[in-house]
Amino acid sequence: MNIHLTRRDFVRTSAAAGLGLWAAGTLDARAAFKTKLHKAMIRKKPSEKELQELKDAGFEGVEGGIVTVEEAAECRKIADKLGMRVHAVLRGWAEFNSDDPAKVESSLKVTEDALRAAHAFGADAVLLVPCRIGGKGMAMPEAWEFDIEFDKKTGHVKKVVAGDNEKYKDYIAAQNHATDTSRAAVKRLIPLAKQLKVVIALENVWNNLWVKPALFQNFVASFHDEWVKAYFDIGNHMKYQKPEDWIRALGPLLSKCHIKDFQLNADGHGGKFVHPRDGSVNWPVVRQALEEVGYNGWLTIEDGGLSLKEFNDRLDLIIAGK
Prior knowledge:
single chain, 322 residues, alpha/beta, TIM Barrel, 8-stranded parallel barrel, 12 strands
């Protein structure tokens, strides 16, 4: 055996070995990704102490809450001083499908407050769940039973399961009403969002609406407006369909991502929330999907119970494609 390798042979052999190790997942995969992802936690009105602790743990920013414009502006000064960022505001649930006009107007007012707070924070998006349906004995399919047919022009659902849908007629009607009323309300918010340069990032977090990727994508895209996009929670939708499918369906409509995990039951039906990387989400595949759609943005952990360092370390692994 000739053990005397030339320098060129050594470099070529080492490179080949490195590719093999990368493919096996034993080397840092970050060099393979062109997209840049940023790490955040949720803090409604972050103090200097909280922001410093997050920075020391490795985070780059936070997602804030609805506070006054003055409070948000003060938080921004502190964040800027520390080199941190308040990147979004969590507005949460609205009642745009309510039969009570006062509740609709109240929901619009709160959302306007959230948009103004976001602008003062220096954030570029507000998480908005337009409404929710269900309850009061309304029959709905189990997560694994959904087989949705819908009109792409109106976004109206025709069927939610294969076969006879008579059992779910009330659910279908409620869903179509929610789609129409939510679309009307969000359109009223677009002028302010445009003025403030803050995206309305729609989320469908377990509100029994738009529970399949194509349907949710259709709803968000129906606004045909750069100031309306999607806020996707990785983990929340595991019970309906794999998160990578949602990410690929949303594509350029994807504005922000929440991070949590969900452990499916052994039969794949139902389950429970767990800490990131402890559940059924295939994080390397999710990371690749984010790369494929060109997502350069924030990953905000929506979870508790671990140290900041542990959450940061887990996000680092996710960002690295591991």
